[in-house]
């Protein structure tokens, strides 16, 4: 990693790591003491506490890097965002798509209750993974035989969630790359399907399960399409830490859950049709440079900036008091300990960056013909016989 990036990552990493440990501690205390007495009270408190951590990453997008996120949707949908439960499906275009979702959730007032289907390994990440676990994210192992029960039970737990939530599901299962697109195109050709140009072929089993378990208490599906204008560099975590801006266009279409078909096969086909429409929409975006619909003003709220400033003041004052009490910087032993602690934080932040980019490096696999739709929920391209 470049030295300049490391210089930025160290102080930001220290701030995020220490504030995150405080958030994790509060979440753990609430989980042990409050959740057994009232699950709804725990969820309301955790929603506010988790938001204090997620807002630091929103600040990174909004105020540090100045990434501009332009949202295209109709006025009615824009007003309903954050006012209802929603299942969110999105193409996976960049390694900060999840952060884009958090920014939109923050604008809609439901950042603390935004959930996602994640790889099981992600819950082991210090701070961010632990906070996701306390926040009831769904963690899967990329094996349907193991994940089916986990997914169904996780979805059922959301039935009595007391506040509007978004559950994000990347049905492509992996981040878009040209190599993966080529594999998807070869598969589509061999299977007699429409050949995609801008998206991967969705894996529908997880989506079908989500719809079948959520249609009675989740009123809407948010069909999100993310595009990067040709005039903007692709956003990455490294660019964010360096404070380098980008532009991202987001198209959002709201579908009523009650309008989806009843049978599993028909729901799976609906998902495939939605991605075929998404593919055409991305063609239009490439030709015109925008999605051509009503552009909504999402602004840049100061809430994330205030939270980061407050965290910084609190931790700086706490650190000064600690150093005065411990005389940690007055000896070689103390200096060595401090340097080691900074190195650990830097390594942890690099692990976070590598995790966010891991899907990009996942090799694509050529898919044999005659599929039977045995796709997994996340991971590399399906193996279908």
TrEMBL record:
Region (Disordered), start-end ranges: 364-385
The UniProt record lists the keyword Membrane: yes
Record Pfam families: Acyltransf_C, Acyltransferase
Enzyme class: transferase
Enzymatic reactions: a 1-acyl-sn-glycero-3-phosphate + an acyl-CoA = a 1,2-diacyl-sn-glycero-3-phosphate + CoA
Domain Phospholipid/glycerol acyltransferase: 86-208
Coiled-coil region: none
GO annotations of cellular component type: endomembrane system
GO MF annotation, one: 1-acylglycerol-3-phosphate O-acyltransferase activity
CDD domains, sorted: LPLAT_LCLAT1-like
Transmembrane residue ranges: 6-34, 305-323, 335-355
Keywords: Acyltransferase, Membrane, Transferase, Transmembrane, Transmembrane helix
Pathway in which the depicted protein is active: Phospholipid metabolism; CDP-diacylglycerol biosynthesis; CDP-diacylglycerol from sn-glycerol 3-phosphate: step 2/3; Lipid metabolism
Alphabetized InterPro entries for the sequence: Acyltransf_C, Plipid/glycerol_acylTrfase
EC number: 2.3.1.51
SMART domains per UniProt: PlsC
Family note: Belongs to the 1-acyl-sn-glycerol-3-phosphate acyltransferase family.
PANTHER family reported for this sequence: 1-ACYLGLYCEROL-3-PHOSPHATE ACYLTRANSFERASE-RELATED, 1-ACYLGLYCEROL-3-PHOSPHATE O-ACYLTRANSFERASE 3, ISOFORM E-RELATED
Protein's UniProt name: 1-acylglycerol-3-phosphate O-acyltransferase
Organism, as annotated: Olea europaea subsp. europaea
